[in-house]
Each structure stands twice: as C-alpha cells, then as structure tokens.
Amino acid sequence: MQRILNLVDGKSVLRVCMAQIWDLATGTLKLSLTGHVSTVRGVAVSPRQPYLFSAGEDKQVKCWDLEYNKVRYQTICVFLVIKVNYSVIQ
Fold this sequence. Notes:
Blueprint: E1 3-8, E2 11-16, E3 18-23, E4 28-34, E5 40-45, E6 51-56, E7 60-65, E8 70-76
Antiparallel strand pairs: 1-2, 3-4, 5-6, 6-7, 7-8
C-alpha cells in the first residue's frame, strides 16, 4: 500500500493507490484492493459478476474479482486512464 501526503495551499491531500470498498451503513472499510503504483482515478462495478474495474495514473486498468480479492485481468494502456465504464454487449 502506497500513500502519499501532499500539502497544497495549506490543505492536506491524500493520494491513495488502491481501490477501497466501504460499508456505507457503518462507515467501516470492508476491503482494500492494492496493486496500482499510482493514484486510482476511476472505478466501475459489474452488475452481473463480482468484479470491480479500476483505472490508475499508472496507466493500468485492472479487473478485480471481489470473491477472491485478487486481480483477474489487467492491461497497461499507452495513455493515462481517468475513467472506466462497464457495459454489457449482447
């Protein structure tokens, strides 16, 4: 887990290099998915499979298997990826 704390205009900014799953009812952290080496910029969740997709400033897109808490697929892109979307092709 890599965390970088920067001070920008007197305010603290935390850059987290992981995707985190939170229980919104209790406010507790349920799962941290580590593997990006730079800030995670976007996430998307599959409505059909227990998958979460993350995109980071490290140009990586990862598909996380939430049942086994590990990366199922990953790719390295040529350009910075800041957003991911999930759609079903029929």
